[in-house]
Each structure stands twice: as structure tokens, then as C-alpha cells.
Design brief:
The chain is an alpha+beta fold. Helices cover about 40% and strands about 20% of the residues. Helix 1 packs across helix 5, helix 3 crosses helix 4 and helix 4 packs across helix 5. The chain is elongated. Pfam families: MCM (PF00493), MCM_lid (PF17855), MCM_N (PF14551), MCM_OB (PF17207). It is found in: Nucleus.
Length: about 725
């Protein structure tokens, strides 16, 4: 058989033989130098029914025969059929006289029919000439074939966006990159329909090559035609063949959208072993055949000349936000990477690596780092305690809140970015849509569902409508979305950490007003944030000078200025280390639990005295535990230590200090950092039974209260000079 294309005639029999030679002879070498035949091994596994899919890498085909690889790319469907036929022949040769294994009802059906056909042909061969002695020729190849062939594009092929796939690519193997915004349930699709005549009992087979078909009605057998019995065909589900089918909706990435355009989408049809390989929110690369959708019947008339197109998937690869393969993040660290992550100050280096071009905000960046790592989820015996850390950044305009959110969105392996005015409650949670394939009502996840087990960044949080903002209350604590719409009652997972940015109610923070008047967010929502930072733009000559020098350097050099002793970590290594950290599940021992309890009681007492209870609820304690476990994860430890607890409490205290109003002034109990340090020393002296206090313990406790180290040193020197206490040679404080 030959195929003519232009002036080139292709011998299909020769092409099939070439494919068989490739499958049998292509080999690689293992670490010991021994030859390995990957495709011959796959064929053997297919014959023994140990494997379903035959995966062909076009890199291997190109290495064997470049022309064959080009032919597969240019005429994929035809060569898919040739590869399937060649595999059928190789499987038949591998089986020899052995009967194919019987694993399910369809195997038994095929075995019985082939055996009966062989018996009948053997009986007829004695009295008359039989044109074809092969009993399997009577049945459609799609019915007998129990394997699937898939192609993987060459590594040198360009990854195209949705709008770059156009008419010249029809029928060719292309690679599409984008994000999955919708994935239907996996359902069976008919590949070969079997009918039985109710009059003569003859079986008829109807291959299905599209999304719809017209069922056969009249029996085409010779007995019914000659006797004019008009036998009616009855569908036999047991003898029919079905394949797994799933439909994906792929949307192009934001960086692929031209200015002034909206993102385009494309439908991807997935069959067989490729189903259930991705979920909404995953960034993927899909190799497949770009083909038009053939309509029939009334739909063809109604559609006119307009033809829909879709991608028939052959290979699906999950990638993260940076474009790297997810598998790459699971690889071992190189020696250079191990040296980087083995630094003593890794915590500070990781925090500095978050948006290094933004000056300052060290504690805020540490909070974002803990949100990226997350705490440990507790799901025992129906109890569910979230581990994700929610952070709210509130501050004056121009303090780089949106830049921090944008960087976190790019840095996280799985994330979604949205804004307050551009988001509705349905867009954040889930929408009910009608499935165009089945006509059923289905759910399409919103931003929070797409970011499951990741980060959702919400900018302009204060601009959201109250009705839309209430949609995320359940997500922030229960980590689920409950739906009761259009007859659909279900619960979707939204295990997501929310990082929000907002401006104060009056544009800029007004120190003459209370915290409630400046924030104007409900207490039920504020209590769900583990950390609430207020970033103010206060005039300060030295700070303003350093900030201006930093900004001008970034604009001049196009990169952040080098910080003494700290080199930012690359995004790829950052993601890789975060992936390793999330595997740890550290626990808190009894002694540290007592420290947390005492701190919580003290915070409640202070909140009661200062009428600030809206920010001090029992969720504060859970937030401290989450941050402590996140810090333990950063150390790749299985237990939380004292320093983790102190650092978590220090961050919470620093966030609380940033919220204190300046209008109270002298009325505040603690006025200066030196006064704060002395109050800590006094409390330690009283609770310690008036024993000498090690200076190291004072430093740790002051750091937990966000008191600068230089202020503590000044306090010790000042009060020692005044004769309030003495510091001995063992660095202990002894009160006079």
C-alpha cells in the first residue's frame, strides 16, 4: 500500500517495517555499558498485559531515522495508526502459539469470538476455499487492540501558546503550554460498539471515530438481507469497547498574553492512560495533535462553516510557575547547592532572597517566607486544624506591598494572583457551569480552588465588596468551600495560604485614629490572619537616603545591590528547598507548650488592659504554633526548639508593635526600647526568684519582644552606670 502526497509516494508497508525495526533494535546503554532495548521491553510487557501504554519519544525516533521523526510530526494520526499496526504484529509474534491473557470481560469476549471464528473457518476449509484464514481479520483492529500508543515531542521543539497554534499546525504534533482552568470527570467513551441482531443473532461492529455517532438500526448480515427479515440491532455493552475520556480547558499564561488582549483557551481531549494526570491550577506542557472537530447531523448544519478545534493529547507534563519540570524539583542537590543551604544564617538568606530588589521590610519578608513553607496540618479523627499561614500587609501607598505579592506569586510552586475589585465571590470560590459535552451542571473552581496546596495573593483587599469578602471566611480557617447551588451540594478543598495587601481606610494611616477606624475590616476576618503588618511611610533622613540610593542603584544596574555577607538564592533552588522542607512534620514537646501557654495568657492580659482584644483571640496561639513549625521545617527538623518559639513570638510582637497607634503617646505603658528592655529584665528578675540573670537569657527574651539588640546593650550599660544592678564576669545581672 502506498500513499501519495504531492510528488512523493510513501510506501506504507515499508514504513511499517521501518517502525518494527525501530521498536526491536533501538537501544541505549546503562551505567555498566550493557545494551538496553526500551521499546522491545515495552512490547513484551504489552503482550503480557503488564502495561497499557506504549510511549514513543521522538528524540529516539530522530536518532534512529530523522525522516521518520519528521513524518510522525507532520502526519501524526497516520503514523499513529502505523505504529499501532506494527505493535499489533510484534505482540502477535511475541505471543506465538500462546493464547493472549484474559483479564476482564472484554478479553473473554474477544477470546470466545476468535475461537469460534477459527473453528468455523476450519470446518468451512474442508468443503470450500476460504479467502482469509486469519480469524482476527473479521473484527475491527480497535476492538482487538488492548494497548495505546502515545508520542512525546522532541525536546528541541518550541512550546507554543494557545494563540500561536494556527491553521498550518492542523494534523501535526505540537507542544502547548498553559494552565489548566478546568478538568471534567473521567468518563467512558465508546471506541467500538457491538450489536446483536434480534432475528438472526449475527454480530455487527461499529467503530466510533468522533465525539458522537449514529447508532446502527438494521442488520446488514446476508441472512437478514436475503430473507428481508429486517432484523433490528441491539447494542451489547459487554462486547463493546470503551476508553477513558477526560476534557481539559487550557488557558495561556499571563506572560503570553499580548498587551490589550484577553487570555485565550483551548480544549484538550485526553484518552486512556493520560487521564487524571493534572488538575485545575496546574501549569502543564501538553504534546498532542491539533485537529478540527468533525460535527455530524444537525450540529453540522447549525454550525455552518465555523469549525471548532481541539488538541488530542499524547503526553502531559506538569511544570511549576518558573517553567521547570516538577520532577526536577525532586532531584538530588548538587554539591554547590548543598554548600548554599548549609549556611548558618540560611533563615536570613532565604528571607533576603524574597524580592531582594525591594529595600528593607526584613521581618515582613520573613513572614512571607513562613507563609511559603507553611505549618503542619492536623487531620486526626475528624479534627482539622489548618497549617497554612495567612498574612495581611496593610500600609501607606508606595511601600512595595504589591511588589512583594507579585514576587511571592512568581516564587511559589503553585499560586494564583488576583485583586479586590477584579474578583467576585464566585470567581474566588467556584462557579456552576453547564458541561458542553454531557450537558450536566458542573463546578468550575475559582482562584482559591486553583491554588489548592499553594498561595493565593489578593491585592487591594480593602477594595473588595463585603459580600465577596465573606466568601473567603470559610477558606481561611476550615480550608474548604461548601457549595449548594443548582442541585450540587459538595465541599471543595482549598488548602491555601492567603497573602493579602490593603490600604488603610483613609488612604494613609492616620495615627490620630484608633486601629479599628484605620483598618475597617471585620474582627472575624482579621482574627483569621496570623500576622497583620502595618507598613508606614514615615519621613526619616537616614532611612530615606538609604532607600533612595537603593532605588537608583536598581534602576541603574538592573539588579539589587550586593549586601555584605549575603547572596540571594536563585528561584529554582529556593523552590527546590521549599519542596524538601514541606516533607517535614515537626512536633512541639511539653516544655515548649508551657512557654506558649504562658505567653498567650500574658497577651490576653495585656489585651484586656489595653482594650485591644480584637487582635488577641485564641487563634493567636494557633498562629504561633504554625509559625514555629514552619521555622522547624526550614531547619529540616522533626521537632520544634526553643529558638523557633521565640522567633515566632518575636514576629508576632513585631507585627503588633507596627499596629500601635502613636496618638496615645505617653499613655502607653512602654515608651522607649530601653524602657521595654528594663521591663523585661525586671520581670525576669521577679519570676526567677531574685536570682542572678544570664545576659544571654535577657537577649533572647528581648528579641522575642522585637526589642533591638543595641537598645538592650544601652539599657544594660546605663542602669549599671547608675548603680541599679551589676554585671559580673560570668555575664550575669545582679541587682544591687
Amino acid at each position: 500500500m502506498a500513499s501519495k502526497s504531492g510528488n512523493v509516494v510513501v510506501d506504507m508497508a515499508a514504513e511499517t517495517q521501518k517502525i518494527k525495526d525501530f521498536l526491536l533494535t533501538h537501544h541505549t546503554e546503562d551505567d555498566d555499558g550493557a545494551k538496553v532495548f526500551p521499546y522491545s521491553l515495552q512490547v513484551s510487557r504489552l503482550a503480557d498485559r503488564e502495561q497499557v501504554g506504549l510511549y514513543i519519544d521522538l528524540n529516539d525516533v530522530h536518532e534512529y531515522d530523522a525522516d521518520l521523526a519528521v513524518s510522525v510530526q507532520q502526519n501524526t494520526r497516520r503514523y499513529h495508526q502505523l505504529f499501532s499496526d506494527a505493535t499489533d504484529q510484534l505482540i502477535e509474534s511475541a505471543l506465538g502459539d500462546r493464547a493472549p491473557p484474559v483479564h476482564d470481560a472484554l478479553d473473554a469476549f474477544i477470546f470466545q469470538r476468535v475461537y469460534m471464528e477459527k473453528t468455523q473457518r476450519a470446518q468451512n476449509a474442508d468443503g470450500q476455499v476460504v479467502e482469509n484464514n486469519d480469524a482476527r481479520k473479521k473484527y475491527p483492529p480497535q476492538l482487538l487492540r488492548r494497548h495505546e500508543v502515545y508520542f512525546k515531542s522532541r525536546s528541541s521543539d518550541n512550546v507554543l501558546s494557545v494563540r500561536e497554534i494556527t491553521a498550518p499546525q492542523v494534523g501535526k504534533l505540537v507542544t502547548l503550554g498553559g494552565i489548566v482552568i478546568r478538568a471534567t470527570e473521567v468518563k467512558p467513551m465508546g471506541a467500538v460498539i457491538t450489536y446483536t441482531c434480534d432475528t438472526c443473532g449475527c454480530e455487527t461492529y461499529q467503530p466510533v471515530n468522533g465525539p458522537s455517532f449514529m447508532p446502527a438500526v438494521n442488520c446488514p448480515s446476508r441472512d437478514c438481507v436475503e430473507s428481508k427479515a429486517n432484523g433490528r440491532l441491539q447494542m451489547q455493552v459487554r462486547g463493546s469497547k470503551f476508553v477513558k475520556f477526560q476534557e481539559l480547558k487550557i488557558q495561556e499564561l499571563s506572560e503570553q498574553v499580548p498587551v490589550g488582549s484577553i487570555p485565550r483557551t483551548m480544549t484538550v481531549n485526553v484518552f486512556g492512560e493520560n487521564t487524571r494526570l493534572c488538575a485545575p491550577g496546574d501549569q502543564v506542557r501538553i504534546s498532542g495533535v491539533f485537529v478540527p472537530l468533525l460535527r455530524s447531523g444537525f450540529r453540522q448544519i447549525a454550525g455552518g462553516l465555523v469549525t471548532e478545534v481541539y488538541l488530542e493529547a499524547h503526553h502531559i507534563e506538569n511544570v511549576n510557575n518558573g517553567g521547570e519540570n516538577v520532577v526536577d524539583l525532586e532531584e538530588e542537590f548538587t554539591e554547590e547547592e548543598i554548600k548554599i543551604i548549609s549556611q548558618d544564617d540560611l533563615y536570613d538568606v532565604l528571607a533576603y532572597s524574597i524580592a531582594p530588589e525591594i529595600y528593607g521590610h526584613t521581618d515582613v519578608k520573613k513572614s512571607l517566607l513562613l507563609a511559603l513553607v507553611g505549618g503542619v496540618d492536623k487531620n486526626a479523627d475528624g479534627m482539622k486544624i489548618r497549617g497554612s499561614i495567612n498574612v495581611l500587609l496593610m500600609g501607606d501607598p508606595g511601600v512595595a506591598k504589591s511588589q512583594l505579592l507579585s514576587y511571592v506569586d512568581r516564587l511559589a510552586v503553585r499560586s494564583q494572583y488576583t485583586t479586590g475589585r477584579g474578583s467576585s465571590g464566585v470567581g474566588l470560590t467556584a462557579a456552576v457551569l453547564k458541561d458542553p459535552v454531557t450537558g450536566e451542571m458542573t463546578l468550575e473552581g475559582g482562584a482559591l480552588v486553583l491554588a489548592d496546596r499553594g498561595i493565593c495573593c489578593i491585592d487591594e483587599f480593602d477594595k473588595m465588596m463585603d459580600s465577596d469578602r465573606t466568601a473567603i471566611h470559610e477558606v481561611m480557617e476550615q480550608q474548604t468551600i461548601s457549595i449548594a447551588k443548582a442541585g450540587i451540594m459538595t465541599t471543595l478543598n482549598a488548602r491555601v495560604a492567603i497573602i493579602a495587601a490593603a490600604n488603610p481606610a483613609f488612604g494613609r494611616y492616620n495615627p490620630k485614629r484608633s486601629i479599628e477606624e484605620n483598618v475597617q475590616l471585620p474582627a472575624a476576618l482579621l482574627s483569621r490572619f496570623d500576622l497583620l503588618w502595618l507598613i508606614q511611610d514615615k519621613p526619616d533622613r537616614e532611612a530615606d537616603k538609604k532607600l533612595a540610593e537603593h532605588i537608583t542603584y536598581v534602576h541603574r544596574e538592573g539588579r539589587e545591590p550586593a549586601k555584605e555577607g549575603i547572596q540571594p538564592i536563585s528561584m529554582n533552588l529556593f523552590r527546590k528547598y521549599m519542596t524538601v522542607c514541606k516533607r517535614k512534620n515537626p512536633v512541639v514537646d511539653q516544655k515548649l507548650s508551657e512557654r506558649l501557654v504562658d505567653t498567650y495568657v500574658e497577651l490576653r492580659k495585656e489585651a484586656r488592659n489595653n482594650s485591644d482584644s480584637m487582635f488577641t483571640s485564641p487563634r493567636i496561639l494557633l498562629g504561633a504554633i504554625r509559625m514555629a513549625t514552619a521555622l522547624a521545617r526550614l531547619r529540616l527538623s522533626d521537632t520544634v526548639n526553643f529558638n523557633d518559639i521565640e522567633e515566632a513570638l518575636r514576629l508576632m510582637e513585631a507585627a503588633k508593635v507596627s499596629l500601635r497607634s502613636e496618638r496615645d503617646g505617653p499613655a502607653q505603658r512602654i515608651q522607649t526600647p530601653m524602657d521595654q528592655a528594663f521591663a523585661v529584665i525586671r520581670d525576669l528578675y521577679i519570676t526567677g526568684g531574685e536570682q542572678p540573670l544570664p545576659v544571654a537569657n535577657i537577649m533572647v527574651r528581648c528579641a522575642a519582644r522585637a526589642i533591638p539588640e543595641d537598645a538592650v546593650q544601652m539599657c544594660l550599660e546605663s542602669y549599671q552606670d547608675n548603680g541599679v544592678f551589676l554585671i559580673d564576669q560570668q555575664k550575669r545581672v545582679i541587682f544591687a
